[in-house]
Amino acid sequence: MAKKAAQRSEIDPKVWLHGLPKAELHLHLEGTITPETLVALSQRNDPQPLSFSDAEQLYQYTDFPSFLMSFKAVTERLHTADDYELITYDMIRALAYQGVVHAEVYISFGILYHFARLDVDEVTAAIERGRLRAEHEFGTSVLWIIDAVRHFGVEEAERVFRKAASMRQQYPSIVGIGIGGDEVRGPADQFRELYAEAKAAGLHLLAHAGESTGPVAGPASIWAALNIGAERIGHALAAQHDAELLEVLAERQIPLEINVTSNLRTGSCSALEDHPLKSYFDSGLMVTLNSDDPPMFGSNLLEEYILAYENYGFTLEQMRELAANSIEASFLQPDRKLKLLRQVELYGW
After folding, report:
1. Which entry of 85, 128, 211, 257 is annotated as an active-site residue?
2. Lower Cβ count inside 10 Å, N or C end of the chain?
């Protein structure tokens, strides 16, 4: 016993967290493009390629509107389907380096359709090529969540979700659908029938909800997401303002995709000490840690684990629980899920 206690006292928490098997459940493929990858894309596509310094400047923003402009400037460098293969491969390589064993990644068919820049079928084939190659090399598995932009309207979401359903047989890695975008201009209730249709087609249901704490996009947005059948909630920052909602989330063990640094950088949360991550955990909610758009926010999943450990008083055993939550909340097949949960259980001591 004394020997084991001494071994624990010698643990470097950052090293321990790096090796901890964990899953990323809230990650946007288009938001994983690093400045290095952006330069590679520019060298492929631009008559005058960006320098690394030029690329870094595109990631600078001062508020949420300028963040959206920054995100747009970066993603506009995706000119071909092959570019999507490159960013998929680079994403999985980066995840594996952080000790991520599985990821469920949003890709926005909504944006592809709305701006009609690239063919959805060609892009999907490309991300699958990147996924298969990277999974083979690095061992990190990936499943896809097909995202609609809620404020583009119901008709555009219908096109996105039906396309996702039609592709499932060809691409079993497509497992779910979700709605991102402006919660005020795209309330979840209007997607009720589409969510029922997607569920009948065998797709899992997700929704960004409660990222803002305003009266419309606050707790009411999370209630609406639950009412249309959402199985996981992205962000859920506003749940802290509704005691009844917190009780329901805890009772049903609805997984919450928490993104601390994202909430801080977008201004959704004003300060690190104000974030409800630890209070959610202590209240028995099914909390998972995620990174959202890592290069845009300057924090990947490993760094989110380190931030949580260093700032919120989590023990390493509680960090193990967060990692187990991320596996349990995933849409993996039961055999792989149990295998990864066992790895988490046996890790470390």
Report:
1. 211
2. N
